[in-house]
Amino acid sequence: MQKNLPELQYELLFDFSSIEQACRWRPVNDVIMGGRSSGTICVSNENVAVFEGFITPKQGIGFSSVKAPINNFSFLGYDGVCLKMRTDGKRYKFRLIYADDYQGFAYQHGLEIQKGEWREVHLAFSNFKPCFRGQQPANAKLLNIAQVRQVGLLISDRRAGAFKMECDWIKAYQEK
């Protein structure tokens, strides 16, 4: 017997149909901590965001990320986020960020899908884990979605090499 799945209602956050959508995203690479990795985000001819670059691990550091403000949007009343994405098969993370600077906590959820396959991935807020500079802090509180100011994408596997992730859109969702 198949379990009845809840009906979902969506609110579009990013659809990358214009260059303005990609211009809201900013790279944050490990160079801020002495690393040498690089990563950028742009909009392709197919109107999808392309997050790509090269990880160059150095002394335990090796990450690249991009983040964007959500401006006047609030996640209150929503149950999670959904992304339509395709990757190179590497492990990525989606992040919810409180602060407008680099010093605040982030809450993240892993993104693992097969290489080259477009997928819609639903990430429930209840499954996000706290993170501060790559570590899970012992004193972290539960995610407070009312404090989220930015969203981001991250690759932090510390493995040397090129990476590429494509994202068609990002939506907030709520169960009806």
TrEMBL record:
SUPFAM superfamilies: Galactose-binding domain-like. Keywords: Ubiquinone. Transmembrane segments: none annotated. InterPro entries: Galactose-bd-like_sf, NADH-UbQ_OxRdtase-assoc_prot30, NDUFAF1. Pfam families: CIA30 (PF08547). GO terms for biological process: NADH dehydrogenase complex assembly. Residues 14-166 form the NADH:ubiquinone oxidoreductase intermediate-associated protein domain. One of its GO terms (molecular function) is unfolded protein binding. Belongs to the CIA30 family. This is NADH:ubiquinone oxidoreductase complex I intermediate-associated protein 30. It comes from Chloroherpeton thalassium (strain ATCC 35110 / GB-78). The lineage of its organism: Bacteria, Pseudomonadati, Chlorobiota, Chlorobiia, Chlorobiales.
